[in-house]
Amino acid sequence: QVQLVESGGGLVQPGGSLRLSCAASGFTFRSYSMKWVRQAPGKGLEWVSGIDSSGGGIVYADSVKGRFTISRDNAKNTLYLQMHSLKVEDTAVYYCARGGRIGLSSNDYRGQGTQVTVSS
Question: How confident is the model at residue 2 (pLDDT cuts 50, 70, 90)?
């Protein structure tokens, strides 16, 4: 069955960095666009970034542009999100999702998420 397992979250100070990973299994990873979405406490899901099946077509939400970098390794069936210059407002549960690379869809398949907390 389809599995997406995120890792790499944690507690970091403002201005710090984290690298999230998402291990995919149960489907042909290299055939799908992927994305990262997040949910801050008390708020709805927010699309963060997306990438097409071959690693191109990269797009970012304005709120993370210039600070976050999405990438993928199709040989390892893994999606990444490198986050720099983290802000308190980046605090959220981060999910990787299989689906269209831009925006949110009810057809997205998400993992269980990894918590990122930015706090001094």
Answer: very high
The tokens for 9 are 């979250």
Residue 94 has pLDDT above 90, yes or no: yes
* Phi, psi (rounded to 5 degrees) for 35: -155, 170
Q: Counting Cβ atoms within 10 Å, is residue 23 exposed (0-12), middle (13-18) or buried (19+)?
A: middle
Tell me 36's DSSP state. Answer: E
Are 81 and 90 in contact, with CB atoms under 8 Å apart? no
| SS3 at position 100 | coil
φ/ψ of 110, rounded to 5, equals: -110, 155
Tell me the sheet residues that pair with 94: 38, 114
Per-residue pLDDT at 107 = 87
